[in-house]
Each structure stands twice: as structure tokens, then as C-alpha cells.
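Sample 1 of the test manifest.
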Amino acid sequence: MGVVEKITSYGIRIFDPKMVHIRRFNFKLVARLAGMMLTILACAMVLPIIVSLVYRDGAQFDLFFSAIAILVLGLVLRNIVGKDTDYELHEKESFWITSVIWILVPLAGSLPYLFTGAVSNFTDAAFESFSGFTTTGASVIADLDHTPVGLLIWRSLTQWIGGLGLILFIIAMLKKLNVGSVQLYDAEFSGTIQRKLHPRIASSVKLMWSIYLGLTAILFVLLLLGKNGLVDSFCLATSAVSTGGFMVHGTGLAEMNLWSRASLTFFMFLSGVNIALVYHLLSRKGKDVWKDQEFHVYLGIFLVAVAVSVSAFLAKGCSLGDALGFSLFHVASTVSTCGLSVDCPTQLPMSVAGVTFFLIIIGASAGSTGGGLKIKRLMILWRYVRNYFTRMMHPNVVFSVKVNDMTISDEYINKIFGFVFMYIMFIVCGAFVLTLCDVNIPTAVCVAAANIGNLGPSPLINTLGPTFDYVSLQPVAKWTLMSLMLVGRIEIFAILAVFSPVYWKR
Amino acid sequence: MTRNDIRALVYPLGIPLLGLGGMMMLCLIPSLHFYDGTALPMFVCGLFTLAVGLAILGAVGKPKGRVDRRVPFLLVALIWLVLSFFGTLPFLATGSVTKFSDALFESMSGITSTGATIFSDVEHLPPSILLWRSMSQWIGGFGIILMVLAFIPSLGINKYSLYTAEASGADNSGKGTITVSETIRRTLSIYIFLTLVFVLLLRLTGMHIWDAVNLVFTNISSGGFCIYNDSLASITHRQQGILALAMFFSGINFSLLFYVLTFRFGKIRHKLDQFGFYLVVIVVGIAGVMLALHYAMDYSWKDSFRCSAVQTLSVLTTTGSLVEDTSFWWTPILFFYVVLSLCGGMAGSTSGGLKVMRVLILFRNVRNILRNRLHPSAVNPVRLNGKPVSHPIINNVMVIFFVYLFTIILGVLLLMICGINATESFGACIACITGYGPGLGASGGLGCYEAFTVSAKWIASLLMLMGRLECLTVIILLIPRFWKQ
């Protein structure tokens, strides 16, 4: 399915190479789309304002003013800068749009944190906002219990909007972007082979949003049934389904009952699955889901990790209930790159720490809200390596790499390899900057990996050396982590392209 | 496996064992000269090794005709294993080491020219053992070039391995047109030539011949054992410079050296890209670390240049000699060095790591993907020395990179399970797999691996072996399908 689609989707990119040089870069379109996104963002702030009014937390005016500021900025970009644009979109603009929107929106989204005074400086506000929109979930708000309720709702909302991707929002909204939307879709989805739900990209994106909304609503209700408060349920439901991982209380999930934990665990697991599969599960094609190889691997990884973790805890003398409860929650949270965590019954055993690191690197399924390298890429990589070993023994055998019965070309494999290589390079560079800020080396590597994987907090980070917390990091480290989050969230090559000299050469 | 296959597996062990035995006999010289009382055990070890070597050559006939395809893979791993097992004999026989795991660690570290040591105090070791340590690295350094040049192509993986990636498209690369014995002859002569030149240079600075020989043996082979407790810290700056130059040469492709030294400059064209990148990495590395040392650690410009130059060369060529106790250096420098040691020297040199060649291909590939994203219909392949490199070859370089990385993560995990703390596991694993030697924390700098648990020492020894054989040849032995008929 996918490769054929890929070819057709490339096929409709009909443009004359000569034309590319003649036409000018469409800045207006970029401004218009960015402005549109900001306007939507301002509209989304209605919810936190209402909550703020209802709960009388005193933040309503701050939230209102930040909403107005975002709205004004959005309208200026949309209606003045981006006036009378055409909707022709090419390769270059699609990279640029993806990058600009993903930088501008989180920056604008940091205003409420600044206005309410929940954080003291711009770096922290931006960090919190980037962490939210990229669904990382690393937080620099020191005292969650005294944060205005409205702001908590805003924080959760940023995760939820970011979960499926800002660009998908635009594609769903904008009917005029027919041809270009394929490129945008590609640029946001990191170049993995995607299942589309519907031949028309806008329709399939709308379907995805409705599934996403549905999942969140179900989890919200389940959490309410588990006797959690309205705000808690809303925040945790968005946290889990978007694989963000922001907490609501300073105490974490310690006081949560078994029902709520179980439903969180299940939905975290589910949000690591390709959203198209969830759709198929709900629709008539339920059987297809069990044939999907990526899902098999996802399930396999999950079960193996849980088994290792449970046995490690049992060996440390925990009760089976504790071991199983923690392991399921921890593994689901890590593999989906959600990052919610419950208290560990004992100190984290080394084997679990190692497994956690592998899970952080691997990440969730392609096409899910989770981050990481994505299972599909690693499957292709793994199969190529396996073939390589067979070829060492039988040099004349010809192999091809197949996933779900589709043959993957050498060129495509090459792109995936390049992607993974860059991903690792970013981890190394990020870790290097962290070591400049006096973080010890293994912790730095794990933190960098957790942030580029959009995981955020993990029990692993604190077991490798002195306690690490995001709050006390230096600004340079925070900005580095923000860029890692961003790089992990949108396609690496989209953002690299914008910053490479090749891009601006005529 | 037929009888002939087993012959093919055992017979080639004979000559390396004879060589090893001969080296042990050479260690008798300092033993007798300094009267350290190890002459008898050393002699017995040498005699035993020689006897086993001769017995193999005598009793096991030459293999005839075709052998099983698996034999070369097994052989490569077997040679290294057997040599390091025999290499433990002098340590055990002279009583310098009491535990087998320690002896194996030290011997493996020598034969793979890694340079990680379990001795916290080497200055009290008998001179014969010191020479044996240096000697084992010298043999190991030569062995690795030999393996890459002579054995790897016969493994059937040459098509996909580094060497062809390097020679791909370059018809007059020299490889393929000369015989294995010619390759061995050339490499050995260059190796001995370099060793003699550097011993001479050190002698000219007034160093005692004993020290000079030991230092050159361990540095030209990118090994890193030292006969002093403080590594290179207490020798003069000029001597440090000479050794830095020796390390620089140890990271250069030996056929490139051969062509330069025999004035055949026409043949070096296809290696210039790699050499250029090697130089760039060195210059950038030295400059970066120099700035860091000057500004972050308040070294004078002169000292920071000296320390940075010697240490960066030592790291990049994965030698592991230390210009001073680096464990006190700024953490970011140490992290940079860990990454740099992964890069390694040129292919076909004595250095370990991934080799700059592969790193170059990896980076060019990224640049290329970026270009292709922007101009999807343009044809521009990754080029090396002006010749296009095909996707399968790039992918195979990637395979090695990922297998390497995977092994590292797994190694760190295993060491942590064995009770080593995270920083130290991370440092030790990478130091062992790249062949650098000193890790981080207690095993880093002038420290040693003495405190490692027995299981951790075994794992570290295995990592050294895997790193030296570029992971693939060891991992393939662990695949069940390999053993199926």
C-alpha cells in the first residue's frame, strides 16, 4: 500500500524544473499559514480562560491578554503580510512552512506562561511551551500545585494540539492546499511511509483528528469514572493521548487509584500505535490490524520489555503486583514516548535502565503521536542488517528488504540510514552541550536522547548519576534541548534543509 | 565441517604462534640483562608456544582445495583468541598476575593494541613483562593491518566492506593487483622501518634504548601501554612530540605510506580524500581542545597546544598514551574525546574506531540526502575521490556504523549490570571497543581497570576483540544460522 502511494504521491508533484527557478519564494504563503495557525491558537485559548473564570484562579486577565496578543500577531501575519497570496506550494516552501510554524507557534504559546508569572524568564516560558507543543513533557515549573488552573489547562492543550502535529491542523483547515498538502504531510511525518486513511489527504487528516479527539474523550471519561477531578482528568487525558507527559500535581501520580492507572497505561500504549491502525480497528477492517508487521514488533517490544522489567523487580524482592503495575506503566509510558511516571517501588535496576534506554531510542510506531526513531525505520534497518549477515555467508544471494510485503528500495533505505545517523549526531551534539553545563556524561546522553525522542522526564535520567532536573539548567542547555525537541518532532531533514546553504543557493 | 576444513582452521595458527613464541624469547634479553628473575618462566613460555606452533605446522597438513565458506570467519576470530590465550602465559608464569581473567584482559588489550591495563603500578613489573606488553601491542598492530589487507577480502565480504568502499571505482588502486605475500612484505617493511626511525629519533633526544623501544612499540601500533606509571607525562616535550608524530603515522593507511616512501605518487590519488579528512579532523580537534584547555582550564598557550596536540592524536588514532592525567580535564573535552575515538584513524592503519573513511562517507551521504530533498530529480551521487559511490555500498558502511553503535549500547548495559557505574561503563565500553584504552572515571586517565569485577573484565575483553575485528566478524559467529549446514 504505502510504497505505491508514495510513488503516486510523488507522481502528482508535477512541476517543470525550469519553473522552480523562475518563480520566487512564496513568503506570503508562509506568512499566511503561520498567521492562520496563530489565530487558531488564540481561539484555543478560550478554553483556559473559561476554566480560569470558573475556578477563580486569578489568571483570567493574563490569559486573556496573551490570547489577544497572539490573535493580533496572527491577524497581522495572515491578513497584512500574507495578503493576496497564491496557494502554490513547492518543496522549498513546505520545509520553510513546517519550520517557521513549529518555531513561531511555540514561541507565541509561551506568552501565557510569561504573563501569568508562572515562570520567571523568557527561556523558561519558551522551554515549557516547546516542551508542550512537541509533546516532550519536560517541565520547568517548579511548583505545580500553586500554578493557576487555567494555565494548567493551556499547558495540556498545547500538548494536545502538538500531538497530531501543527501542520496537520493546517492541512485539515485549508481546502485550497491540494497539491502542496502532500509535501507538507511528508515534511511533518518524517518521511516514513505512511498509511493514508483516505485518498484525499485533507479527508484523511480530518479522520485522524476525529479519532484523536475520540480517544481523548474516552480517556477523559474513564479518568472521571476513576474519581479524578475534572481538571486532572482533562490534563492527564491530553497528556497520555498526545504522548506529551506533563504532570498535574507536584506529587505526580502517587495518589491515583488502580482503575485510573490502568486506563492511562492502556491509552499510552494505544497512542504509540499508528493512528491509521486505530482507525482500522474501529472500522470494518479490524483484521488488517493483526497483519501489520510494525504492530507485531511494537507489541513484541512492549511484552519483552515488560517481562524483563518484571523479572528484574521480582529479583529485587518486590511483590508481583507492584512489579507488574510499575513495569506496565513504565514501559507503556516509555515506548510511546509519553513520559508520565509513577513512583518506582525500589531503585531502578540496571537491566531496566538499559531496556529503558533502548526504548527511548526506538520510540513509537510511525504515524503515531509518539516520537523516537520509530519502529518502522528500525525494522527496515534491522532487516537490512540481517540480510547483510546472510550475504556475508552467501555472497551471491540477492535480497530485498520487505515490510508488510512491500519491497523497500536501496535508495529509500539509504535515506532512512541517513536519518538515523543524523538523529544520533543530534543526540551526541546535544549531550555535548549538556556536558558544558556540568551534567555528567551518561546523564547528558540520556537527557539528549529523551528530548529528541520527545519523551521528557524518565526515571532513567536520575539513576545514572547525580540528580538531574530541568529547572536548574542553564539557558544555553535549555535552548539546546528545545531545538532537540523540535528536531525530534518534525522531520530532521526539513529543518536541516532550511538552515543549509544548499537551500538558499539559486 | 570436513577434515580439510579443520586443517584449514588450525594450520594457519602455526606461523602466528611461532612469531609469538619468538617474541617471548626476545623478552629474555631484558630479563637476562636486568636479572629480574623471570628468565626461566619466560623461556618455558616461549618454548611451549614455539613447540605448539611447530607441532601445528608439522602435524597438521596444509589444507587442499576448497574449504567451507565459514572457515575464514572462524579463522579470523580464532587467531586473535588463540594469540591472546597464549599471550596470558608470561603474565601467569612469572606470577605478575594471579587471576586468569586479569591475565586475559591484559593480554587481549595487548594483542588488540587497545592499551587498557589492570596494573595500577607498572614500574614495579619485571622488565621482561614490560617488554612483553609492548611487544604484544606491536604484533597486534601489525596483525590488524594484515588482517584488513589480506584476510578480510577473502571473507567474501570484501564486496561490502570498507576496503572496497575505499577502492570502489578506482581500478588502479593497487589492491587486487598484488598478491597477499607482497602485501605482507610491504606492510611489514614499512612497519619495521617506521619503528626503527622513531627509535632512532628518540635515541637522538638522549633517551635510553630500553625506554625508546618500549615507547615506540606501543605508540606506532596505536596501543598505548606504557612502562611509566604516568604515561608520557614525565618525558621531555621534544620526546612527546616525536611520539605524537609516531601516533600520527600509526593512523595513516600503510599502503599510502608505502607509495609515498617509494615515491610512487601516482598511486596515492585514490586515498587523498580520506587523508585530507584525516588531516581536517586532526587540525579541528587540536584547535578545539587547545582553546578549551586555554580558556576553561587556564593552561598557557604553549602547554595547551602541546597537551592538545599529543592527546588529540592519541585519541584519534586510538593509541591511548596520555600527555598527563586527563581524568582531571574538563568534562566536555573528555566527552569530545570519547566521540573522537569512535572516529578513529584511516582504514588500513593500526588504529581502531570506525575509521575516518566511513565517517566521511556517512557525512557526505547526509549532505547528499539533503540536496536530493531539495532537488528530487537531480542526479548527484555521493562521491569519493571524484568517483560515485553507489547506494548499496553506502548502506553497508551504515550497517557497520549501526552494528558498532548497537554493540556499544549493549556493552554499556552489560557492564552496568556487572556493577560498574554508568560513567565508567560508558567510558570503558567505548575505550575498549575503539581500542583507545583509558576510559572515564576510575579507569580513565592514569587509572586502571584493576577494580573491575571479574565478569566486567571478561566483557571488556570481548569488547576489545569485537572492536578489533570490526564487530561483524564476531557477531556473525553468534548467529545460529551460521552454524547450520
